[in-house]
Amino acid sequence: MLLGVWRHLWKRHPLRYDISYWSIVFPLGMYAVGTQEMERALDLDFLDVVPAAFLAVALLGWTLAFAGLVHRVVKDAVLRRLDQA
Question: ∠ at Cα 7 (65, 69), nearest 5°?
Fold first, then answer.
């Protein structure tokens, strides 16, 4: 997330869909699930909040990546249709 802030806010790289964003979303979800399973297996109740927080972050990331994908597909389809007209 810090690299994303650095890339888009500091370096002013345009915020556009890139397939590599999925490689960020997947580890967030896996961290949430892995932490939850470790918390259950080792009975570490103090970790209760961590999986829920990372699940929320992972779902937000997944939603943003999916919205970017849909936007790009629709935009490309509209541009192709305009070029054909």
Answer: 15
List pLDDT tens digits, range 35-62.
999 999 999 999 989 999 999 999 999 9
* pTM of the shown model: 0.77
Say which residues have a Cβ less than 8 Å from residue 58's Cβ, sequence separation at least 6. Answer: 25, 28, 29, 31, 32
Is residue 39 a contact partner of residue 51, using CB atoms and an 8 Å limit? yes
Query: What does residue 17 show for φ and ψ, rounded to 5 degrees?
Result: -65, 135
Helix (H, G, I), strand (E, B) or coil at 12: coil
